[in-house]
Amino acid sequence: MRGHRLRYGCALGCLMLVTLLNYGVPLVGSATIDYAVGGKTVGPGTPVLIAGLLRLLGGADYLRAHLWLAPLAMVLLSGAGGLFGYLKGWQASLASDGIARRLKNDFYDHLNHLPARYHDRADTGDLVQRCTSDVETVRQFLATQVMDIGNAIILAATALPLLLSLSVPMTLVSFALVGPITIYAYVYFRQVKHVFKEVAEAEGALTAVIQENLTGIRVVRAFARQEFERGKFAAPNARYRDRNLHLLRLMSWYWSVSDVVALSQIGLTLIVGAHWIAEGKLTVGMLFAFLAYLSIMLWPVRQMGRILTDLGKTSVALTRIREILAVPRESVSTPTPALSKAEGRVERADPPEPLTGRIVVRDLHFHHASAGLPVAGRGALNGLSFEVRPGESLAILGPSGAGKSTLMHLLLRLYDYTEGSIEFDGRELSSLPRQWVRSQIGVVMQEPFLFSKSLRDNLRLGRGDAPDHEIEAAARAASIHDTILGFEHGYGTLIGERGITLSGGQRQRVAIARAVLKRPPLLILDDAMSAIDAETESLILNALQERRGRATTLVIAHRLSTLAHADRIIVLDHGRIIQTGTHAELSTQEGLYRRLWLIQTNVETDFKTDLKPA
Ligand code: ATP
Fold first, then answer.
1. What per-residue string of b and e applies to 558-573 under the rule 16 or more CB within 10 Å gives b?
2. Which residue from 88, 378, 439, 459 lies 20 to 30 Å from 258 (Cα-Cα)?
3. Are 514 and 484 spatial neighbours (Cβ–Cβ below 8 Å)?
4. How confident is the model at residue 604, as a pLDDT?
5. Which helix (DSSP H) or strand (DSSP E) does residue 239 occupy?
6. Rounded to whole angstroms, how far apart are CA atoms 379 and 369?
7. Is 443:340 a contact under the CB 8 Å cutoff?
8. What pLDDT, on the 0 to 100 scale, is given for residue 375?
9. For ligand 1, is residue 400 a contact (CB within 6 Å)?
10. Any atom of ligand 1 within 6 Å of the Cβ of 399
11. Residue 538 CB: number of other CB atoms within 10 A?
12. Segment 360-411, tens digit of pLDDT
């Protein structure tokens, strides 16, 4: 509620006025019935409040002569109560919406700073649910139930003294069942609290299934899995319905019992009141006042159940939100000194200078946390060592699962290595601020992701201030400029959900242009041309070669034509380097590279022979 307390204070002030104004209406009614119509005279036995009110209305005789004053006063009091009620709702909504907005922003920001390890295992649908539905539960609670609780507290603090000042025995009768109703509500809702959690979890599971289905909708269609998906959805959907029905049953039971008790309370007051009127112990006006006050009070008392329900729901929602907020963010920088093993000296995280592009990797081991317990030699990387000079281009080849992408993720500090070392310009990577490391690297991921905005905005992702001519130069280097000009809106063309759909190769080329535009000292292409035809690939490689020397380049690929240009090639297998050298050296050396080279060139030769006219 930080920053919104004043608004809540205003809302509570208005609420207090509403309560006071509402108290006035039964008093006017009671005074009119007993003193203006009933002919009672004001004496020592007259309650102080009634006597004061009659004085305010000109006395009992004046009121008797001007009876219209009573309904007018009641209408004015109700009208003023309505006005302050509106102000109360408005202020409370402003405050709760502000809090919910901040909570969502914090949550979203936190998600963006959680470590890659967390996102590897996180259920996206569940996270969406927590960021939307759970925050909405909290918002609703803050907008309405906080005020209801305030109302209940104000009533509890003021109604009792007021009623006692009117008639002590009648107050005892009117409150006879209020205590049991409150205790019943409290006990009941404590017991059903876990059901709210089950409903929220069932809803989260449902959202997760929908989210996964929509992400893979093409695969579902291609494999004709609609029937299977229907079945897969049916189970969590049924569970959600069951949990919800269970909750509804429990709620209906609560409301029915509370209805009976509340009506019994009114009945009891009416019967005892009528009896006492007959005996002359109570006036009709007083019974009218007590019945009116009961109707004002019983509603919030019965609402206590709903408030407690919502309190339960809100506390579950808050717990679910807090569970995510409690996950530690990936550290922005590592201020602790890191030991540079090679030189045996301690380095501190001074503000780093721009990277020259020298990378030294020594005996690097890495094991994915979600891949079970670490087993020596069975990690994603098992003792990797190599060096790259500034401006050099290094190609990395290896079978699927060899650890190529893992190496790239470590260089980006998406994961932290625990064994071995990576040095950027002689500084241990783990001692360098993550943001800075990422600002120095232009990367094209294996499955490039483009945002649903214009091509220009997508290209500018790494350098928001890039001028148009540089954007075009980068697009030319990635051989996508002409394609973009072919679109109706050129660089302003919207892509993704709100615009056109790019082909796989086009997406990769936009991603390459995006990385090149960043002008990073280190460029990493992770299988970035797998969907690009050989001719276009060769154009891109030529353009990148022209830029060679400006950036250190790491190229990961399976197609040897992509790698052959590189200054040096390393071949990885099972997280280890098994070969290293230039294309000329490796293609004559026995080993995996030569085998792949022969396969790929033979395929090409066979293909060319087949195409030759007979
Ligand atoms: P490809 O050529 O198919 O892209 P790669 O050489 O890039 O393969 P990596 O993605 O680095 O291979 O994977 C290396 C190993 O680490 C594989 O055995 C893979 O199953 C495992 N791995 C990769 N990412 C994770 C992860 N997030 N959690 C657990 N294991 C992972």
1. bbbebbbbbebbbbbb
2. 88
3. no
4. 61
5. helix 226-278
6. 10
7. no
8. 60
9. yes
10. no
11. 16
12. 999 999 988 766 555 666 788 888 899 999 888 899 998 888 889 999 999 9
State the Rg of the chain over Cα: 37
- Distance (Å, whole) CA 4 – CA 171: 38
CB-based contacts of 572: which residues, under 8 Å, 6+ apart? 384, 396, 397, 398, 402, 403, 404, 407, 578
Query: Which residue out of 117, 120, 365, 368 has the highest number of ligand 1 atoms within 8 Å of its CB and is therefore the one to mutate?
Result: 368
pLDDT band at 95 (very low <50, low <70, confident <90, very high): very high
Compute the distance from residue 406 Cα to the ligand 1 centre, in Å. Answer: 6
* pLDDT over 60 (residue 13): yes
Report which ligand 1 atom has the smallest distance to the Cα of 408. 11
Cα torsion angle, 541, 545, 551, 553, sign: positive
Q: What's the rounded Cα separation, in Å, for the pair 490 and 474?
A: 15
What sign does the dihedral 563-567-573-575 (CA atoms) show?
Answer: negative
pTM: 0.74
Copy the structure tokens of residue 248. 């509804």
Q: How many helices (H) and strands (E) in the chain? A: 24, 12
Spatial contact of 352 and 433, defined as CB atoms under 8 Å apart: yes
Does the Cβ of 401 fall within 6 Å of ligand 1? yes
Q: Is 540 left (phi over 0), alpha (psi -120 to 50) or beta?
A: alpha
Measured from the Cα of 409, ligand 1's closest atom is 11
State the burial class of residue 575 (Cβ atoms within 10 Å of its Cβ: 0-12, 13-18, 19+): buried
Is the pLDDT confidence value at 21 over 70?
yes
- Please list the residues that pair with 346 across neighbouring strands: 339
Using alpha carbons, list the distances in angstroms from residue 424 to 8, 391, 421, 523.
53, 13, 10, 14
Q: What is the pLDDT of residues 110-162, one digit of tens each?
A: 999 898 888 888 888 788 888 888 899 999 988 888 888 888 888 878 888 88
Q: How far, in Å, is the centroid of ligand 1 from the Cα of 317?
A: 35
* Nearest residue by C-alpha to atom 17 in ligand 1: 401
- CA-nearest residue, atom 2 of ligand 1: 400
Identify the sign of the CA torsion 524, 529, 534, 537: negative
